[in-house]
Design the sequence.
């Protein structure tokens, strides 16, 4: 039966191959999109800008809140939790 099934479904092999490749592309895109490193780097740059006097406290707090919200969304994604809201990255 395995040989017969393979022969009968052989015309669908390209479709299954494309679906598999698309699945890998989506996985890679999500891993890059939900990478916390850019947000963490932005938080470090933001703190340096505040300490250097390049931005005021209000701007720092607003951007920091946005970045921390994004990091929470990233952590929820990696835990497997569904997103609570539509993504806003980059904040």
Sequence:
């Amino acid at each position: 039966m395995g040989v017969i099934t393979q022969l009968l479904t052989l015309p669908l092999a390209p479709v299954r191959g494309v679906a598999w490749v698309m699945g890998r592309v989506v996985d890679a895109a999500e891993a890059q999109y939900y990478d916390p490193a850019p947000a963490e780097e932005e938080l470090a740059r933001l703190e340096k800008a505040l300490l250097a006097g390049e931005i005021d406290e209000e701007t720092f707090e607003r951007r920091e809140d946005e970045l921390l919200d994004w990091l929470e969304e990233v952590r929820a994604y990696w835990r497997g939790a569904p997103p609570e809201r539509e993504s806003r990255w980059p904040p």
Observations:
- The radius of gyration is 22 Å.
- Residues 34-78 form one domain.
